[in-house]
Design a protein that fits this description.
Elements lengths: L1 H21 L8 E5 L5 H11 L5 E6 L7 H12 L4 E6 L6 H5 L4 H14 L2 E5 L15 H17 L7 E8 L28 H4 L8 E8 L12 H5 L6 H7 L4 E8 L10 H10 L1 H16 L4 E6 L21 E2 L4 E2 L2 H8 L4 H9 L1 E6 L2 E6 L3 H16 L4 H9 L5 H16 L2
Parallel strand pairs: 1-2, 1-8, 2-3, 3-4, 4-5, 5-6, 6-7, 7-8
Antiparallel strand pairs: 9-10, 11-12
Helix pairs in contact: 1-12, 2-3, 3-5, 11-12, 14-15, 15-16
Length: about 425
């Protein structure tokens, strides 16, 4: 592990030097965040401790839902990673169709999840029934039933006591429309539904009206030749392909934009695909992945309307030692292989938009720091926030016991929904000391 830390530190210094030399004056607008490689908080802890970074948003994908102990996982995530960040959670209804969702067949799982988010007071960007404009999932190829299912699920979150300060609903589409005339499945033949075709469904057909959508996300990958013959395309070429014109269509929905899955393989060569050749290229040509990630950085920097890019930091091929049809060597930080691509630190360093800006603009929250711990309170509680801060400052200045601070706050006339989170945080922080 010492060798791994030495390598990380060397990469960090070189990347920062390149950043300051080449890009000293760029005003950046996006955050670069990661999906947990193995869906555990320990994975995120290892990355943060090894690289000396704090990831203000981390992504966990529980899909399909019934193969994961979601509630216990969230307990563990909240305990280890705390509440001073945003969580991107994906929970989809296994192999249920949109009609099944409307008929309450997944209500128990959704409701338990929403109650857990309320209990832990987390700030969540929630993705469910994603990539509905593809052909692989039962929720696909029926826009009207999908919209009814979406509205139903959102209403369940409101019954559980959540609002836009706790959870944002993420309308997440594949960057290409690929419906099917068959019953949707992993093996159904797809239709290349480009913008010129009017006899097939586009992602706009699934959009469940503005009042039910908080953010719009999309997914895209660069496949090259990790597991088959694919084109060599930049992010700009993928998202501005005239057959789909994905990015301009996303912008036309006029919602905050986020990329919730993006990644690249490192494998490219001119010859026809061969697994042995791809493995050799993976082992010897890191610079190809670095170059594409640099292109991604340029794409993000030049589009300030993009709030977030979540890198799909997973490699289910384990360094292309196994061939998996739908996966490639995506990881940018591969703890298992002690492999970190050089542009990761440059991307992370460019993520200068402050977390409180995101929380303020998307979740309508304000930041409060107590004993070096950050919590976030509704912007509706600005007056109460100033009272709480004043009490903490005054009592701390005269050396009051921390329990006195809590009791003083409880004795005020501040409405309970504004102080519950503060009292809870103070209790946790003070119990550590």
């Amino acid at each position: 592990m010492k060798l791994f830390h030495h390598k990380i530190w060397k990469i960090f210094l070189i990347s920062l030097l390149i950043w300051f030399i080449l890009f000293p004056n760029i005003n950046n607008s996006y955050y670069f965040w990661l999906k947990s490689a193995d869906n555990t908080p320990e994975n995120i802890e290892t990355i943060e401790n090894s690289l000396w970074v704090k990831l203000p948003v981390v992504s966990f994908i529980f899909d399909p839902r019934d193969r994961n102990d979601v509630l216990n996982s969230i307990d563990k995530i909240a305990e280890k990673l705390w509440t001073d960040r945003i969580y991107h959670f994906t929970i989809s209804p296994d192999m249920y169709s949109a009609e099944d969702v409307v008929m309450w067949k997944f209500d128990k799982q959704y409701t338990a999840f929403f109650k857990k988010i309320k209990e832990k007071n987390l700030h969540v960007i929630f993705r469910t029934m994603h990539e509905m404009n593809g052909w692989r999932y039962p929720r696909s190829s029926n826009p009207e039933k999908f919209k009814a299912a979406w509205i139903h699920v959102r209403s369940l979150s409101r019954v559980a006591g959540l609002n836009e300060e706790n959870i944002l609903f993420d309308f997440s589409v594949n960057h290409r429309d690929m419906p099917t005339n068959w019953t949707p499945s992993q093996t159904a033949p797809l239709i290349q539904c480009n913008t010129a075709k009017t006899d097939c469904y586009h992602f706009e057909d699934y959009y469940p009206w503005d009042e039910f959508v908080d953010v719009v996300w999309f997914t895209f990958y660069n496949w090259w030749k990790a597991n088959s013959n694919r084109l060599r395309l930049s992010p700009t070429q993928i998202l501005y392909d005239p057959n789909w014109n994905t990015y301009e269509r996303i912008k036309a929905l006029n919602k905050p934009i986020v990329i919730d899955e993006v990644a690249t393989t490192s494998v490219w060569y001119e010859w026809n695909y061969s697994f042995e050749k791809s493995r050799n290229e993976y082992l010897n040509h890191d610079e190809r992945k670095d170059y594409w990630i640099h292109q991604l950085r340029d794409f993000l920097v030049n589009r300030p309307e993009i709030y977030v890019a979540i890198y799909f930091n997973a490699d289910y091929t384990h360094g292309l030692t196994s061939k998996i049809i739908w996966e490639a060597d995506w990881a940018i930080v591969n703890i298992d292989d002690n492999k970190v691509y050089g542009w990761f630190q440059e991307l992370e360093a460019f993520s200068e938009k402050k977390l409180d800006n995101i929380l303020s603009s998307l979740f309508h929250l304000n930041e409060l720091t107590i004993e070096w711990e950050k919590i976030f309170i509704s912007s509706k509680c600005n007056r109460e926030l100033s009272i709480i801060s004043s009490i903490i400052d005054q009592k701390s200045a005269i050396g009051s016991w921390k329990l006195d601070i809590i009791n003083e706050i409880k004795a005020t006339n501040i409405k309970s929904d504004c102080i519950t989170q503060v009292i809870d945080t103070l209790s946790k922080v003070y119990s550590k000391n």
